[in-house]
Structures are given as C-alpha cells and as structure tokens.
UniProtKB/TrEMBL annotation:
Pfam family name, one: ABC_membrane_2
Residue ranges occupied by any ABC transmembrane type-1 domain in the UniProt entry: 25-239
Family classification: Belongs to the ABC transporter superfamily. ABCD family. Peroxisomal fatty acyl CoA transporter (TC 3.A.1.203) subfamily.
Compartments where found: Peroxisome membrane
Residue ranges annotated for the ABC transporter domain, each copy included: 303-522
Entry keyword set: ATP-binding, Membrane, Nucleotide-binding, Transmembrane, Transmembrane helix, Transport
Gene source species: Chelonia mydas (Green sea-turtle)
Protein name per Swiss-Prot or TrEMBL: ATP-binding cassette sub-family D member 3
GO BP of this protein: fatty acid beta-oxidation; long-chain fatty acid import into peroxisome; peroxisome organization; very long-chain fatty acid catabolic process
InterPro entries hit by this protein: AAA+_ATPase, ABC1_TM_dom, ABC1_TM_sf, ABC_transporter-like_ATP-bd, ABC_transporter-like_CS, ABC_transporter_sub-D, P-loop_NTPase
Amino acid sequence: TGYLVLIAVMLIVRTYCDIWMIQNGTVIESAIIGRSRKDFKRYLFNFIAAMPAISLVNNFLKYGLNELKLCFRVRLTKYLYEEYLQAYTYYKMGNLDNRIANPDQLLTQDVEKFCNSVVDLYSNLSKPFLDIVLYIFKLTNAIGAQGPATMMAYLIVSGFFLTRLRRPIGRMTIAEQKYEGEYRFVNSRLITNSEEIAFYNGNLREKQTIHKTFHKLVEHLHNFILFRFSMGFIDTIIAKYLATVVGYLVVSRPFLNLAHPRHQKSTHSELLELHSSNYRINAGTEGLEQGQISADYDITTRERFDHVPLATPNGDILIRDLNFEVQSGANVLICGPNGCGKSSLFRVLGELWPLFGGCLTKPERGKLFYVPQRPYMTLGTLRDQVIYPDTVEDQRKKGISDQVLKEYLDNVQLGQILERESGWDSVQDWMDVLSGGEKQRMAMARLFYHKPQFAILDECTSAVSVDVEGYIYSHCRKVGITLFTVSHRKSLWKHHDFYLHMDGRGNYEFKKITEDTVEFGS
C-alpha cells in the first residue's frame, strides 16, 4: 500500500513538473525571440534550480515502481508455490495434467512478466489520465471548453480504433511464449539426456529437432516484428502526428503540442546487455569446443584394451592397467559393485571420455551402439522412436519398410503398441506414454533396426520380464550383434561367453564362462 501511495503521489507531482517545464520552456523561447536577456537568465536559472527536484521525482517514481513489482512477485510466488507444493500437485501437473507444458517457466519467468505488466499497466494508465485531467483544466481556462472537448472526442475515437487494431498482439504474445517454452524444452532435453544421445550418436537428429523448433520461433518472431512495424506506423500517424494536427487546429497556436516526445532508451544498458550476452556465448562456444574430445583409435572389427588406464576426465583412476580382447561374436557380461567403473568403461568405448594412455582397438562409431537403462525417447512419431537417430529419409535410403519395423517390435513383444497408439505417425510425449518396460523394449527394437556389430547394454532390460529378456538376447546372437552387458541377473550368464568382474578397488578379472564358472547376482 505504501508503494502504491508513493507512486500515485509521484505521478501527480511529475505531471505538475511536466506542465511547469512546458510553461517555463515557452517563456525561455519567448525571451530568446524577444531578445530579453533578463527574462532569459531568470527562467533559465529557474530551470537549472528545478533540475534536482525533477530528477528526484522521476527516480522516486522508478524506485516505487521497481519495489512494487518486487512486492507483487514475492507475494504471488509464495502463493503459487504454496499451492504447487501442496500434497501431490507438483507431480500431477508434471505427469497427469498436460494443460501446462512448462510449469517451471510459469513459476519463474511468467510470474515475473505478469507482475511487471500489472505495475506498468497501473503506471501507464494513471499518468495519461492525470495528464488529460490537468491539461483539460489548463486548456479550459485558456481557450474555453470547446477545444478540449474536440480533442477528447478525437482521443476516444482514435483510441477505440487503435485498440481494435492491437487485438492480435495478445494472441501473438501468447504464441511467442509458447514457442520460446518449446525451444527451451528441446534444449533442456538435450542437456538432461546428453549422455544417452551421445551414445546413440544422435547429435544430427537432435540438431534437426532444435533447428525445427527454433525455425518455428523465428518465423513467428518475424511475423510479430512485421505486425509491430505496421502497428507502429499507424500508431505514430494517428496517436502522434494527427494528434498534433488536431491540437494545432483546436488551439490555433504553435506553442502547444500534446504529442510529447518519447523518452529514448539509453543504448548504454543495451551495450552492457550485449556485452554480457557476448561473454556468455563466447564462454559457451569455448565449452563446446573443449567438449569435443579427440583421441586416436585403432579401427577394427574387435574390441581390445591394451594397457589402457580407466580414469575419469578429472583424473581419478579406477583401474590402472586394463588388458583384454573380445572378438566379434563373443558376448561379455560386465559385473561388479556400484562405482567400480562399469559405466566409465562404456564412456571410454563411446568416446565420451578421453583415452589417457595405452591403445584402444574398437570398431568405428557406427558399428558400436549403446542401450542405456533409461532409454531416450525423442520428440516425434512412433516410427521415430524405432529409427532414432535416423530420419524417415534415412530409413527409406536403407530400404527398410514399416513392415520390417513392425517385425522389430514383434521381436521385443511390443507389436501391440502399433494398434494401441493409432499407427506409425502418431505423435505423443513418449517419455510419459510408454512404461519403463516398454521404453526398454523400444530401445532394443531400435538396436535391431541399426544392426550394429557391437552393442553396449547397460542394465537395459531391468524392467523387462525374464522370459522376454531371454528371447531378446537370443535374437541378438541370432542376428550377429556382439554384446557388452551390465546386469545383476543370473539368468543372463547363459547368453554370454566371457565375464569381466571389477571389484571397485582397482582390480578386475576377465575370464571365459564355462560350466565350472560360479555365477553371482540375483
């Protein structure tokens, strides 16, 4: 309430200041034209003396507006979070209610913009209203009531006309926020699922998705800019220049001009913002360049670690000297406690982590496929989930029909999903639509589509039943996919030829699985 009163008082005082400055400026100009040195000095010194007070009024007004925006934001944010974090509302909004696609944006950016708009609306409506009242009072005393009445009539008619023209702005602003939210969403998906996407080598597909989403945003912004250009042209003619003409016609004197010059925004803040953005972009570019790990690999049809240290990018050594070789066709089961280095081994194989020494012999990247425990479901159709990171054009170039894709789904006992989701071209949020087991089986169907020579299975069937899991592993051997499997299930030992056990203390054991091998796991 205190800030509302402060803003109201400052608006009234600033309006009186504006009127005083117009009157004082008029007499200064009259003194110059009349060559009256005495009057010129007098009114000029009056203006100089009033400058601190006028500046103080303007800054008190800005202070009150900014504090009021902050107060509104604090109160609204507290209220929304009180409702959002009550019971399971946050879960229902994110998982059961699809009316709000980005609740994080609603609770942060949208709240801030709403509070700013409400306070700006209060200020922008109050100031013109006060100006109108005081100017009408002054004009009525000077030239009678007919002139102000004519100007009010013009103001009402032109305001009604411009309001009708501005109607699409609200709809276009909502659409802009929607496209901005979608653009942020696809970028956050890339960050959240970066490791899975990197193993899938899906950077090109993700780039297409991001570019497509960004293109929709840019196209809308182009249309919005064109609309605002057209509106700005009409607005300037009607609200500024024609209003000036009407003022001239009404008062028939050149000293009164109701079209106040707009305050031009200082380019200083824009330069600072540009500098900040440039710094962030440069930092991001350097990070992207540094993230492109390069290493020399011996490309072949086998997997061989020759005196390779298994270490994290920051230098923590998990295994000092890793030596083993796997020929194509020999499946390897990798086991050990959490944190022993199983996932680290895969990251080195997938070229996500650097090679710190030794020699790694591995097939080229396209012949090595990774299936994580938490499969990544891309934005798009049901078909896209199977062929990812390929596109439909890539599928056609490979000569693979939709009927063959149906066979891949049948191989993982997921054929019924085609009818359930209304065909290949159905578009859903597949991360939410598919269950955990269905997503894991979809990832295995994706594996069969790409037919790599080697595949890394990182507990990718933990949510699949044992019988379906056994069928999938048998089919992998049938089609000639050599497997590196991380799993704690004893039922999978029979599908592998070697095991690599890491004890978590820097030691490992690589042996062939025989009838005498003691199986461990659950």
